[in-house]
Structures are given as C-alpha cells and as structure tokens.
Specification:
single chain; alpha+beta; 4-stranded antiparallel beta sheet; 6 helices; 21% helix
C-alpha cells in the first residue's frame, strides 16, 4: 500500500466517517433522483452530506457522533475536515459505531482552476501534515465535487435521470474507478450547467477502520 505522500493526487484532508453500511442506510431514505445512479445511489463520497462525518456541531449532537464545540478545533471550524492526524485523534471519543478514517486527494489537472474564495482552494494550499502523509492508503475511487466538496454524483442539483452513465465503471465502494474516467465524466457533467462549477476530481482513500467501543 502506498503512503499518502506517494499518491498521484494532492492530499488535502483527512476525516473520520461513519461505517459505510450505516451511511448507505441513511442515504437510502433520500430521493433516488439525487444520484446519477438511481438504482445504486450510494457511494463512499467525499461529500459529508452523502457519507457523514463522525464530527459534528453541538446542535447535531448524538450518541454516535463526536461534538466539536466553538473554538475547540480551529482548523475543523474553518473546513469541517482535518489536516493533521494527531489533531483529529486528539478529538476522538469512544463511539458505539464502527467508523472509517479516510483521506481526500485533489486531482491536479492543470486545465481546472480552483476558485480562490471557496474551501477547496484553502485545503489545496494547506495540504496535510507530514505525519499524516506517512499513513498507508487504499484507493476507494473518485468522486466529482464543486469547490466546497459537494458531490455532483450523489447529492444536490445533479443532472436529470436521463443522463447516461452506463459506460462509467464504479468501484466496490460506489465511486468512479479511474482518474481518466472521472475526468471524462467531470467534463460531461459541466456541460449540464452545475451551479457551483468548475468541478474537480477528488480521490477518496481508506486509511483504516476504527472499531466500535463496547458499552461499559
């Protein structure tokens, strides 16, 4: 397995996400036309609205989430993701659910320019810490998002159900299987006039599973 320092994309963030089966259950309640794959609408998305983070604001507190209070984690306050594994681990708490440590990478396609006033540009400029870069990573596939990491594949204002994606191969995690295929689909999606274009190819990497904490 490569470390994050050797992946082809620029590592821009890490996060702790809830277990994929549980996330898919939550996602199943959404209307199928929010996905370009209405028959199998879930994927291990970079988008936290699709694959929820364990970390939440106080007003979203629940037994299977970690609440971050105002000012408690300045970087997370700014971006809702992490740049340093040590910082993230320092805010972890025992949880009754399985969770997954993931990393996000930005495709550095020179033809796609970052919109500087959006979050993705700040994440790309900052990157992740040197210790985080040494974590081993397994590619889950590619998502396509706008400049605030909202997916064009699984949520929000996607194309109509008549948009043909039968030729797009998906990984076992429901993401696009290659960067070349992701770039091709990104160009096709932009012709549909997404509200937050330009779009970007974002790789999603598995860094490890965190088991549920047994009740005391």
């Amino acid at each position: 397995m490569p470390s994050l320092s050797h992946i082809p994309d620029r590592p821009i963030a890490i996060d702790l996400r809830i277990d994929l089966p549980k996330a898919a259950q939550i996602r199943a309640a959404w209307p199928p036309d929010y996905s370009i794959w209405p028959d199998e609408p879930f994927g291990a998305s970079a988008d936290q609205h699709v694959w929820p983070s364990v970390f939440v604001y106080p007003e979203q507190a629940s037994a299977d989430r970690v609440t971050i209070g105002p000012g408690e984690a300045p970087y997370w306050d700014a971006f809702n993701v992490w740049d340093d594994v040590r910082d993230m681990v320092g805010h972890m708490r025992p949880l009754p659910v399985v969770s997954n440590v993931v990393a996000l990478g930005l495709d550095q396609d020179p033809s796609v320019h970052l919109q500087q006033d959006l979050a993705l540009a700040g994440l790309a400029q900052n990157g992740v810490s040197s210790e985080t870069l040494e974590m081993e990573a397994v590619l889950m596939g590619y998502d396509i998002t706008d400049g605030v990491l909202e997916s064009a594949l699984f949520a929000h204002d996607g194309p109509s159900l008549e948009f043909d994606v039968r030729d797009v191969q998906r990984t076992v995690y429901g993401l696009i299987d290659t960067l070349e295929a992701a770039r091709t689909l990104r160009r096709r999606l932009e012709t549909c006039g997404p509200p937050n274009a330009p779009l970007h190819c974002i790789s999603v990497w598995a860094l490890g599973e965190r088991p549920a904490t047994p009740p005391t």
